[in-house]
Specification:
The chain is built from 16 helices and 14 strands. By secondary structure, it is of the alpha/beta class. It folds into 2 domains: 197 residues, 3-Layer(aba) Sandwich (Rossmann fold), CATH 3.40.50; 173 residues, Glycogen Phosphorylase B (Rossmann fold, 3-Layer(aba) Sandwich). α2 crosses α3 and α7 crosses α10. The relative contact order is 0.12.
């Protein structure tokens, strides 16, 4: 099968690390004997209109620049690539990538697959809600995409319910949960040099993630403040960067956490396995709302694959993902989060038991090979119904 995959962000930038999803799926498709071409939209305009070979996959870059001329140029380019493909797969509903991919697939009569991994309109109004008209345009696109595509993959049960509520037939909806690379993230990884780099001698409790809208990192900071007074010698770390970084640093300083809570800023995704390996406890904290109900958090599956005890907020997909491999706490409640972390810091036997269960959970379900197979099932189901 020939699969054209389109992503609206920069798949090679550490500032947009969520693109690991499409990179990982592309590599899994190739492992399974399929041909893949990737199209992405770089942050730096100078990197647009280039073609490279990445791990045996042809990768093309297009411009995000506003304007009718650039928009139609991208449509024509994707139309040409769609002529090669059996499937046009695009992730997210951002107009400058999704619409050209959709139009190219329709014109060429190809199977069109929409990979719906986040409720983008909710994230938009949470983080950039000042532009109402742009928000309404995004809402319209996200509402229409499941119907315009032939098949849809969803990263959460909540997004599946949204598709059904819209009236989409259930046989067009497929599970597309996030996965982990079981080779890169595994319990054999060593993280000692990370502790040495930061001068950490005792236990390390880590939060991995990007510091932007819908992440709720304040909960972790508040829990760290509570625990730093009760359990000396524990270091807390926030590994990631984003536009909220400076505000979060100021908030941490206001609580007197200097030296007890470390910020790494942006780190390459290739280094994340070592940061997780260095941790004694891994944390994923959220409030309960439409954004978090839809999430399939990447950090959790990478914690699982690394065989780490997890403390996570019990919201959305997290209960299914963590299963019996961690401690679930009340969403939006820093005191509950602190209690969960404290329990694992004091009960190392329990922490070791959860570590073993975590790796098994990743091997059983939450890996990229499993997710790729789900998507291939979507492609095959359409072929069985008869392509255009």
């Amino acid at each position: 099968m020939k699969i054209l995959m389109v992503h609206p962000h920069d798949i090679f930038s550490r500032e947009e690390p969520w693109t690991v999803r499409i990179r990982s799926l592309a590599l899994e498709f190739v492992k399974k004997g399929h041909q893949v071409r990737l199209v992405y939209f770089p942050l730096n305009a100078r990197d647009a209109s280039k073609k490279i070979n990445w791990k045996g996959i042809e990768v093309f870059s297009l411009s995000r620049k506003l304007g009718v001329g650039n928009f139609f140029k991208n449509i024509l380019f994707l139309r040409r690539l769609a002529g090669w493909a059996d499937v046009v797969h695009f992730q997210k509903c951002f107009y400058y990538a999704a619409l050209p991919a959709l139009i190219a697939g329709l014109v060429r009569g190809r199977h069109i697959h929409y990979d719906w991994d986040d409720w983008e309109i909710k994230i938009y109004f949470y983080s950039r809600g000042q532009n109402y008209l742009m928000g309404m345009f995004l809402w319209l696109l996200e509402r229409a995409m499941p119907f315009l595509a032939d098949t849809v993959s969803v990263s959460s049960e909540r997004l599946r319910r949204e598709c059904l509520r819209y009236g989409l037939p259930s046989n067009r909806i497929f599970e597309g949960h996030v996965g982990a690379d079981l080779e890169r993230f595994n319990p054999e990884n060593k993280g000692g040099y990370i502790k040495q780099r930061y001068g950490i001698n005792g236990p390390l409790v880590i939060y991995i993630g990007q510091l932007h809208g819908g992440q709720y990192v304040e909960l972790f900071i508040d829990a760290a403040e509570k625990l730093s007074k009760k359990i000396p010698g524990v270091t807390f770390m926030i590994a990631g960067g984003g536009y909220r970084l400076e505000d979060l640093k100021k908030y941490s300083d206001s609580l007197g956490l200097n030296g007890k809570l470390l910020f790494t800023e942006h780190i390459p995704h290739d280094e994340i396995p070592s940061y997780i390996a260095a941790a004694d406890i891994c944390v994923a904290c959220f409030e309960k709302n439409d954004i978090t109900e839809c999430k399939s958090p990447l950090k959790i599956v990478e914690y699982l694959a690394s065989g780490k005890p997890i403390v996570a907020s019990n919201v959305g997909e997290i209960q299914r993902m963590v299963g019996e491999a961690g401690i679930l706490t009340e969403p939006g409640d820093s005191a509950s989060l602190a209690e969960g972390i404290e329990r694992l810091l004091k009960d190392r036997v329990l922490a070791q038991e959860l570590s073993k269960k975590a790796r098994l959970q990743a091997e059983r379900k939450y890996n990229w090979s499993n997710t790729a197979e789900n998507l291939l099932d979507a492609y095959r189901s359409y072929a069985h119904r008869g392509s255009k």
